[in-house]
Amino acid sequence: MRFRHPDGSVVHLSYCTNVHPAETLDGVRAQLRDHCEPVRRRLGRDRLGIGLWLARDAARALTNDPAELRALRAELDSRGLEAVTLNGFPYEGFGADEVKYRVYRPDWTEPDRLAHTTDLARLLAALLPDDVTEGTISTLPLAWRTPYATDPGAPRTARTALTTLAQRLDALAELTGKSIRVGLEPEPGCTVETTADAIAPLTDVGHERIGICVDTCHLATSFEDPDTALDALTAAGIPVVKSQLSAALHAEHPHLPEVRTALAAFAEPRFLHQTRTRTAAGLRGTDDLDEAIAGGALPDSTPWRAHFHVPLHAPPAPPLTSTLPVLRTALTRLVGGAVPLTRHLEVETYTWQALPAELRPRTRTQLADGIAAELTLARDLLVDLGLKELP
Q1: Which of 54, 76, 130, 145 places its Cα 20 to 30 Å from the Cα of 221?
Q2: Which has the minimum average pLDDT: 19-23, 170-174, 247-251, 270-274?
Q3: Are the C-beta atoms of 113 and 165 separated by less than 8 Å?
Q4: What is the pLDDT of residue 21?
Q5: Which positions ≥6 away from 294 have C-beta within 8 Å?
Q6: Which of 314, 318, 280, 313 is nearest to 299 (CA)?
Q7: pLDDT at position 295 over 90
């Protein structure tokens, strides 16, 4: 979906396909047929933006066979789909029964991360619509905090990898005329947990093609104020490459038994749900929601937020809610000003099948309806900010 910003530029809105498990190229094609095109039809649009997730095997198949890449591009066109952004964070296995800490490997100290991201950049340059010259990729925020923190050589290794990536992106732009930018996506528990944590390493890299991806669920989970965070990034000259529109799980009164019971329904074995609370002494947290619920690990006199991407249009029932207000504030700052801070927005609720059973979509039709409802909400927010939807 495309929108005209009041400054005349085009802002793209997509939804991320990591919600549909697929490790192979055949799986990606099935996503387009079974999920993406039906969502587009529900929205009544001729064109729908998707944030493709290409796992390692799918990316390698496309890299090794130019004919397959051309065929995928043609299939996107024929189904009324377009890709201007990729989710390069998960490497493989994102549809496994248990993902947890595995999603953070390989990290930016390992050669496979640089190689995979380079492949994604080259693929995206070929997949961009003919009238689009800029693409974006979100990626791991360097690494999970351990063992990175105990390896004195890790920061230099990661910086060298990102600098090499920037050089390859420059060469790609010169070769293809397509500018691909990559954004580190801060996430609780990682080396770069907050937007503030991103400033130093990105300043060290010091390249316009390497910036930040602001995920509004992660922003909220870490209790970051969107205006403060974006002010600091702007002052430091760090580009917001893209933003993922998502909402976290919020518990206002975690000391109450009924709140603990409600939270327990969201503690599940597949994904990591880092949980945070803000105290007078600073931010406190656990790696997963069940650790917090068990008691003792977190103070419960202040609100808790958990890294669980809840559907934008359907916050959980009381006594829980979502951090949609944080998303609204961030979006206002990102694209509501005289000039947009980013032009690539991506709805990223990948946890539909991890929701409590009564909230989980049971059919493809229900999932498509839910994704379409999220995109409708995002579209309405953009229109309210003065953007005009384009055909």
Answers
A1: 54
A2: 19-23
A3: no
A4: 86
A5: none
A6: 280
A7: no
